[in-house]
Amino acid sequence: MRRFWRGIHSFHYMRYKKWWFLISAVIIGGGFISMVVRGGGNPVDGLKYGLEFRSGTSITVELEGDPGIAAVRRVVTEQGLGNAVVQQSTSAETGRTGYQIQLEPMTQEQEVELREALDEDFGVVTTADGPAYASQTVGPTFGREIISASWKATIIALVLIAIYVSIRFEWKFALGAMGALAHDLLIVIVVYSLSGREITTATIAAVLTILGYSLYDNMIIFDRIRENAPRMKGLTYGDMVDRSIWETFDRSLYTMITTLLPIICLVTFGGTTLQDFAFAMLVGIVTGGYSSFFVSAPIITVLKEREPQYQKAAARSREARA
């Protein structure tokens, strides 16, 4: 184990930066192909969207005796309502098990018939506030508004981050940060495509949170690179970045682990809404920890190595090795 940790703190990461780019490209490219195949040629259709992003009806109901997803789906199908998505959930307020049924847009008569069929076969739980039954219908206009607002929020966040990093460091660091953030967003989309999970408003909220976490992780190594640059002028830029990674690796790793522990608990024990949020956070935090070392740092290294002083340092290093 000690030998493993010594290897991590002495490995020359920047000498293999092309491999890190290739690994990320293969993962993202494979996910894009998956989206194209699933979407019948259109990658946008290769993702599974929640009710908020498409038109449909969502019904939440608590039934007596917990009949199970298969039994509930059978009743829905018997009413002539195909392509229904039935999920089991636990109420955060009461702790009782309920069911969430998502269908194509329904008429009022169809909804009444379905409610009566569920009550007749299983019995709808009655509380002090009335039957534990609620429905929501979303039209296509609302879905388009949600998508437009989500894109605007993401683009504005990226622009503000780029401005902040450019002011605090320089534009080459901003490009590295943008590359890492774009990488994290694409990986989250790829994982959702491959896993078939629905993209909901909770996913969008998690993605915006991921941007902040990933930026924080990048700032740790950016600060160390800026501190080491004037003190290690005799080294090539890549070797200086490697030393910066060695010095910040433990801190980033421990931060990621302590952040993941409660999120794993949410994914395992949380309700449906919390699980959607926590799953996106889980993927984003892991990719954010990876991208700070293997995406943003290599991008900065490639850009800075073109500067004259670092080209001279690289030439001296090559001569010394020869």
What does the largest sheet look like? 4 strands, antiparallel
Calculate Rg over CA atoms: 25 Å
Give the total of beta strands: 8
Tell me the number of structural domains: 2
Strand content: 5-15%
Mean pLDDT: 81
- Output the number of helix runs: 10
Strand order of the largest sheet: 3-4-2-7
Question: What low-confidence regions span 5 or more consecutive residues with pLDDT below 50?
Answer: none
Please write the string of helix (H) and strand (E) elements.
HHEEHEEHEEEHHEHHHH
Detailed description of the structure:
The protein is of the alpha+beta class. It folds into two domains: 2-46 and 141-321, Multidrug efflux transporter AcrB transmembrane domain (Multidrug efflux transporter AcrB transmembrane fold), CATH 1.20.1640; 56-138, Alpha-Beta Plaits. It has ten helices and eight strands. It has helices at 2-8, 17-38, 69-78, 108-121, 140-168, 171-195, 201-228, 237-269, 272-304, 308-321, and strands spanning 48-49, 56-61, 85-90, 97-103, 126-127, 130-131, 133-138, 198-199. It has a four-stranded antiparallel beta sheet. The chain has a two-stranded parallel sheet with strand order 1-8. A two-stranded antiparallel ribbon has the order 5-6. Strand 5 and strand 6 (130-131) form a beta hairpin. The model has no long low-confidence stretch (mean pLDDT 81).
